[in-house]
Amino acid sequence: MSCEVIIRIFKFIPVIFITSIIAWSWYAYVIELCLGAVHSSIEAFFLLVFYHISLFFLLWSYYKTIFTKIALVPPMFKVSRAEMDQLTNLRTPDEQSRFLKNLSKDLPIVNCTINNCVRFCEKCQHIKPDRSHHCSVCNACNLKFDHHCPWVNNCINFSNYKYFILFLGYGLTYCIYVCLTMLKYFILFWRINPFNYKGELENTSTGKFHLLFLFVVAIMFAFSLVSLFGYHTYLVLKNRTTLEAFRAPIFCVGGPDKNGFSLGYRKNFEQVFGTEKKYWLLPIFTSLGDGVKYPVRKHLLEDV
Fold first, then answer.
1. In the predicted model, what is the mean pLDDT of residues 103-119?
2. Looking at 34, 124, 149, 175, which residue is catalytic?
3. pTM, full prediction
4. Is-catalytic flag, 149?
5. What's the pLDDT at 202?
6. I need a surface site. Which of 163, 169, 192, 211 has the fewest CB within 10 A?
């Protein structure tokens, strides 16, 4: 087994962990709670229906977040070998800057460096499109790069950002649903001794452990997800990536501006989720644009 294969397997450990947690939660909720502790078959039926709907959307969005390919920089931004040789032979940074500006004059770029130079990736050897950044883990530049998430073993970028938001939202919904529907039984399990709400589970310590632990784990994950989901919802409404929230994008006209890509709450939301409401809650790609060119505030387009 090669070293590269071992590294890939190692990177999937967080994904395997999350998948294992979800699989165990299914066993605890379906087998131990609905089929073992709930005494009403009608109640168990409705609990199972809504549970599996929540689980389905959670797994669907998680799968899409993990396995959607990274949105890579198009070939039009690539610097050829001959151009790279010319660039490296230039003596001063000013000469290199002028050379890159000449190469990028026909490219749809409004972002630049703090020194008003063209953004260039030496590792990938191409001019960076607006909002793109290099991921050191994947060793590639991503369009509209947000961050690299080890829990999905993938970069969160233009191609899967909607799926990631939905994954957080459905994960939070899943945890809240589990907590709320288990609350009555959680209280009963502590009041009744020994865990004999239904005869089949009397003296069954393992069943009690699974359900009590599931309730605690669901609360813990809910607290984590509510902060993540809330933060990324805020970023969507502001039309920012995580990187842009910490370091404002720099525009060729106007300089640093955190709100440079902000078009108003509704249009910002539509940039990620699209304009068709029927697809907003589905992990189907509906984001606007091509990941290369983005609408900006009018004052940032002057003289461009």
1. 92
2. 149
3. 0.91
4. yes
5. 47
6. 192
